[in-house]
Amino acid sequence: MRRRIGISLAIAALGAVLPLVPVLAGVSAPVIVLPIHGRIDDGMAHLVDRSVADAETEHATALVLDVDSRGGLSDAARAIRDRLVAAHVPVDAFVSGRAWDGGAVVALSATHVAMAPDASIASGAPLARSDSAVLRGALGAGEAVQQGIADEIAPQRAAALHDWGLDPAHVVTPDYTFGERIVRLAANPVVSGLLLALGFAGLLIEMQTLHLVAGNVGTAALGLFFGSHVYLWFVDEIVIGLALAGLAGVLLELHVLPGHGVAGGLGVLTLI
Questions:
Q1: What is the pTM of this model?
Q2: Max intra-chain CA distance, the chain
């Protein structure tokens, strides 16, 4: 019994000391810089969600948004904003280029906002900061500071980090995973529509020809469409079940009851 108590106390002491090792070793917590560059989409929202979780786990000093975006999907921009507002680490933003529409939504979720001298911020709808400053229309860096939309003008991101008391030497910049890059392509509204059209067309042609070529192409297109949404957790068990049931109906039509049309028609209807 004494031995067990001693082991338990040793484990508890080790758990208390381990978080202090980086501090004792003189290693600073990282500053995580999130690139909000280009089109805002669901893949970017996934990157932000993953990076915020990592920052919270690693007790990062701060999350810094490097914003240069003309916007994109409004739902993705709002999802990014909500995740950043709920983050348990400080969030700052440096607008290095454009922060337009969805880019402005993301930038204004930060506590501190700095802008490069030639940067701009714009929104077609009024956007409010937490201090009640309201963004209307398009503003240059100087105008944004005057109206309270931005806090300062910084010549570069390193200068903004210095002003916020952050160490530029410990910056970590997460990158998109291969899956997130595929998702950014597949979840694009144009590509997504093409995948659905190609998928259904391939299955319908396969039901007439039974050569497997069109069916394989259609199945691959639908698999990429549904797979990207599953990766982003944008579907639930019901949607996945309907997709599998629809594919099962089409396969039944192709290989078990060819020519009847009932199973295939129901399968395509279920997929739709």
A1: 0.69
A2: 77
**3-class SS at 130?**
coil
* Token duo for residue 22: 């980086």
Q: What is the pLDDT of residue 230?
A: 67
**Identity at 69, one-letter amino acid code:** S
Strand partners for 62: 31
How do residues 153-179 score in pLDDT, each as one tens digit? 999 999 999 999 988 778 888 888 887
Q: How many CB atoms within 10 Å of residue 239?
A: 13
Pairing mode, if any, of strands 112-115 and 91-100? parallel
User: In terms of DSSP bridges, do strands 120-128 and 134-140 run parallel, antiparallel, or are they unpaired?
Assistant: antiparallel
Q: Give ∠ CA 114-37-77 in degrees, rounded to 5.
A: 85
The C-alpha R_g of the chain, in whole angstroms, comes to 25
Q: Quick one: 43 exposed, middle or buried, by C-beta within 10 A (0-12, 13-18, 19+)?
A: buried
